[in-house]
Description:
By secondary structure, the protein is mostly helical. It has helices at 5-11, 16-43; strands at residues 48-49, 52-53. The chain has one domain.
Amino acid sequence: xxxxxxxxxxxxxxxxxxxxxxxxxxxxxxxxxxxxxxxxxxxxxxxxxxxxxxxxxxxxxxxxxx
Length: 66
């Protein structure tokens, strides 16, 4: 008998509560990551090149060359 059979079956169960928990966890992780990125960028706010901010959040400003 395959001992993992019951675990696999459990994960396949459709449950609205599980989906709600998953969405909540994803939102919390996204917020935590965004907060960490903002904190990191704040540490490098004074770093500039050619009068422009040297460290930026990827994808939030137009492409530029330093």
